[in-house]
Structures are given as structure tokens and as C-alpha cells.
């Protein structure tokens, strides 16, 4: 099912031409009307007329998160204030918050992208969509809300929290689709279990649109096996607008609406553009953004571009599931460790439950990594010998995958903190 078949299935050459036309218009506007872009392009010795084809985008300078902070709050905006219809503010987990402004047109392309994603997940007028992303400064709630209404679904703006009530509403209103973070969905699974509610028997829930934090393929499998829902992976950060792009029913990568966002993957060290299939840092250019444009923005998410044709018929490029941010990468004893690798390894072990916490400390010059792992109720026992055996099995699995020794601490079911918003599973206590 398509929302906008003409664009979603447009032949490659036509799509490239459309992207080039959009890029050219955007760059001319920015060079002539905005001091920041004008100065950056001058410093790199590039003018709008140098952009003769889509690939010439590589001549343009990069933009960084730091630029968004340095020009806070509105110096990067390119429309008069009276055209700005909304602000969102990023959570600022890695520093000062960043402000994003939207024109009516910006809300329009954002909702359009979501309408395409929700339609590809089979959500339409007959569905009841429970949005349990936070409503407020965070983009998730209002983003999915507008997208849901655009495809004609009945939207339940549940936001986060009050989880028992969420489950009750899900049953009472015949909710068929839910949108939230994967960690909140797992939290809801736990709450439902305690209430004696079986997602399969007691609800009509069919689809879960999960995102806003990295999650692994094995966590997806676990969610699907335990609840019977089909989980889709949605991607988009507040700088881009909010959550926007998702995988299709073929589940082989996130389709990026090519008329809305141009994607490149670069080697974060050498800044060279990598060919499709190679993993690196995602760089995005928003082709239709009005209030707060982004050109070659280093978003710090690690992924690869997939260009082999998708059986669903969409011609847009896809990106592989985001496995971490280059910012999130931990360097432990000189080895790069992504929390997503740890999650992936843990989820392969049948006795392990849904919750874990990662602690990194430094004693003298030596980094230590400790991982607290919650066990499933049926796996936890008072038999010390069995518990020690299980612990060393988990430690070996992690050592094999991460190439560093890790100390594992087993926890009883329910002992670790639950997250109602974005999960914070890494505590890095090193003073560097
Ligand atoms: Zn597809």
C-alpha cells in the first residue's frame, strides 16, 4: 500500500532529477539570503553555480551539532518569525538544547513523510493509533499525531506514563496500532503481564511503530514473538523535523523519502563519501525544509545505505537500522563498543529478560565495564551454582562479541529501573 505512489515508486533517474532541482533551489536561496550559509560556502570557495549535478553536493561544507548550539536560538532560521508556526526543543542529552522552528510547509512535509510510513505499515482510516511518545517539546508525540490524522486513523494522544491506564484504553478502544519508544513498549509488555492482559487475546493490537532510540534486531524479534504484533522501525531526529521514515513490510531497511531527504554516508575520520553498503556516519540534507534548513548535516548516526531494489516496489534508498550514534560509542580499553552490540548479545541468551544497565568506571588507568542483567522469572533461582554458570556463560558471550572482558551482575526480575521515555542504559562514570 502506498500513500504517494508516484513519488515512492518514481524511476531512479526522475527521482535524481527531482532531488537536483530541489537542491539547486535550496542552495541558491541559502547563499543569497542567509549569512551563515553564505559565509560557510565562501570559506569553502563554492558558489551556487558550482552545483551542476546531484553529486556536486560533496563540494558543500558540512554542518555540525555545534553550529546549532552556536547559533541558538534562531540565527540559522531562514524565514521571518511571522512564518514560524511551531518550535520543538531537543532533549539536550549531549549538551545545550537545540531549537527547531517549523513553517506550515515544514509541518506539511513532515506529516507527508509520516503518512507514507504509516501507510506502508498498513495503518489507515480503520485503525486506532495510540501515540505514546511524549507530547510537548519532544517531536515524537505531535509528529505521529499529525501523521496518523493525515492517513485518517483515529488517534489516541496517550503520551507516556500512567501505563495501566494505557493498557485499559488499548482494550476499551480497540487500539490496533501503537507508536512509542521500544523501551516503553517493553515496559508496557511488563505492565500488561502484571495485569494479566495477553496482547494476543485481550487486545486488537497489530502494529507497533517503534523508534527514537537505537534498538536491535533481536529486541524486535523478542517484541514480536511475545506480543504477536508486527514491529516497524521509525527514524528521524528533531533536527530533521522528528520521526519520519520507516521500514516497509519487507523489513529490510528504512526507506528514506528521497524527495524530502538526501542521504550520504561518510567515513567519520577522513570525511570521504563511502559507497552504498559501507558503514559510516550518516550525513543528511533536507531538501524541502523552510524555517530551519540542514545541508550536509553530520547527524552522528552510524548506518549504511542500501540501494538494491526492495521487493515492495519503492525506489527510494534505504538505510540500515541505526545501531548507535558515533557520539554514543564507548571507547573501553581502546576498543570501540556500541551499547547496541551489548543488547544484541544479551537478547540472544534465552534466560535474559528485557532490562540491562551498562556501567563504565576507571580505576587508575584501567577501564572497567560492568553490566547488570535482569533475568526472566523462570530463569532466576536460588541455586548458586546454576546462577554462577549462567553468569559465566553471559560473560563469555559478551567477551567473544566485544573483545573485552566484562563483569556481569545478575539481577532479579523487576530489579532494574524502567524507562517511560527514552531509555538511559549507559552510565559512564569515568572522569576523562
Ligand atoms: Zn520496501
How would you describe what is shown here?
It is built from 12 helices and 20 strands. It is of the alpha/beta class. The protein has 2 domains: 323 residues, Rossmann fold; 99 residues, ANL, C-terminal domain (GMP Synthetase, Chain A, domain 3). A 6-stranded mixed beta sheet has the order 4-3-5-6-7-8, sandwiched between helices. The chain has a 4-stranded mixed beta sheet with strand order 19-18-17-20. β15 and β16 form a beta hairpin. Zinc ion (ZN) binds next to loops.
Give the tags.
GMP Synthetase, Chain A, domain 3, 2 domains, binds zinc ion, alpha/beta, 20 strands, 432 residues, Rossmann fold
Spatial strand sequence of the major β-sheet: 4-3-5-6-7-8
How many separate helices?
12
CATH class of the largest domain: Alpha Beta
CATH superfamily of the largest domain: ANL, N-terminal domain
Write out the distinct hetero groups bound to the structure: zinc ion
Helix content: 25-40%
Task: Provide the fold topology.
Elements: H1 5-8, H2 12-33, H3 35-43, H4 65-70, E1 86-89, E2 99-102, H5 104-120, E3 128-131, H6 140-150, E4 154-156, H7 163-172, E5 177-180, H8 182-195, H9 199-202, E6 207-211, H10 217-227, E7 230-235, E8 245-246, E9 254-255, E10 261-266, E11 280-286, E12 297-303, E13 305-306, E14 318-319, E15 330-332, E16 335-337, H11 339-347, E17 352-363, E18 366-375, H12 384-402, E19 407-411, E20 426-428
Parallel strand pairs: 3-4, 3-5, 5-6, 6-7, 17-20, 18-19
Antiparallel strand pairs: 1-2, 7-8, 9-14, 10-11, 11-12, 13-14, 15-16, 17-18
Helix pairs in contact: 2-3, 5-6, 7-8, 8-10, 11-12
Zinc ion (ZN) binds next to loops.
Amino acid at each position: 500500500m502506498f500513500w504517494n505512489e508516484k513519488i515512492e515508486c518514481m524511476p531512479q533517474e526522475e527521482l535524481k532529477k527531482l532531488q537536483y532541482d530541489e537542491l539547486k533551489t535550496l542552495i541558491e536561496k541559502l547563499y543569497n539570503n542567509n549569512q551563515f550559509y553564505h559565509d560557510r560556502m565562501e570559506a569553502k570557495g563554492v558558489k551556487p553555480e558550482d552545483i551542476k549535478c546531484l553529486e556536486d553536493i560533496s563540494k558543500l561544507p558540512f554542518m555540525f551539532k555545534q553550529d546549532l548550539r552556536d547559533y541558538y536560538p534562531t540565527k540559522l532560521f531562514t524565514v521571518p518569525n511571522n512564518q514560524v508556526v511551531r518550535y520543538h526543543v531537543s532533549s539536550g542529552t549531549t549538551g545545550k538544547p537545540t531549537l527547531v522552528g517549523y513553517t506550515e510547509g515544514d509541518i506539511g512535509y513532515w506529516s507527508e513523510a509520516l503518512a507514507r510510513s504509516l501507510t506502508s505499515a498498513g495503518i489507515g482510516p480503520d485503525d486506532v493509533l495510540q501515540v505514546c511518545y511524549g507530547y510537548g517539546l519532544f517531536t515524537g508525540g505531535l509528529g505521529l499525531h499529525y501523521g496518523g490524522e493525515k492517513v485518517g486513523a483515529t488517534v489516541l494522544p496517550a503520551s507516556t506514563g500512567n501505563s495501566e491506564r494505557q493498557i485499559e484504553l488499548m482494550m476499551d478502544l480497540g487500539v490496533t496500532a501503537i507508536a512509542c519508544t521500544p523501551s516503553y513498549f517493553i515496559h508496557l509488555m511488563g505492565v500488561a503481564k502484571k495485569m494479566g492482559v495477553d496482547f494476543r487475546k485481550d487486545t486488537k493490537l497489530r502494529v507497533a511503530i517503534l523508534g527514537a532510540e537505537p534498538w536491535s534486531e533481536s529486541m524486535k524479534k523478542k517484541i514480536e514473538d511475545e506480543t504477536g504484533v508486527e514491529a516497524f522501525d521509525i527514524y528521524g531526529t528533531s533536527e530533521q523535523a522528528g520521526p519520519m521514515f520507516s521500514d516497509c513490510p519487507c523489513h529490510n531497511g528504512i526507506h528514506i523519502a528521497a524527495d524530502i531527504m538526501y542521504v550520504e554516508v561518510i567515513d567519520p575520520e577522513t570525511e570521504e563519501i563511502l559507497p552504498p553498503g559501507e558503514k559510516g556516519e550518516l550525513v543528511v540534507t533536507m531538501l524541502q525544509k523552510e524555517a530551519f534548513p540542514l545541508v550536509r548535516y553530520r547527524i552522528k548516526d552510524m548506518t549504511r545505505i542500501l540501494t538494491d531494489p526492495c521487493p515492495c516496489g519503492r525506489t527510494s534508498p534505504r538505510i540500515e537500522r541505526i545501531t548507535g550514534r558515533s557520539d554514543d560509542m564507548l571507547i573501553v580499553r581502546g576498543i570501540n563498543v556500541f551499547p547496541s552490540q551489548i543488547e544484541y548479545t544479551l537478547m540472544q541468551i534465552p534466560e535474559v529478560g528485557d532490562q540491562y544497565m551498562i556501567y563504565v568506571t576507571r580505576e587508575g588507568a584501567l577501564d572497567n565495564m560492568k553490566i547488570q542483567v535482569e533475568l526472566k522469572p523462570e530463569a532466576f533461582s536460588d541455586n548458586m551454582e546454576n546462577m554462577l554458570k549462567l553468569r559465566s556463560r553471559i560473560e563469555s558471550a559478551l567477551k567473544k562479541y566485544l573483545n573485552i572482558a566484562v563483569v556481569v551482575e545478575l539481577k532479579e526480575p523487576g530489579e532494574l529501573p524502567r524507562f517511560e521515555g527514552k531509555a538511559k542504559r549507559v552510565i559512564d562514570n569515568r572522569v576523562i
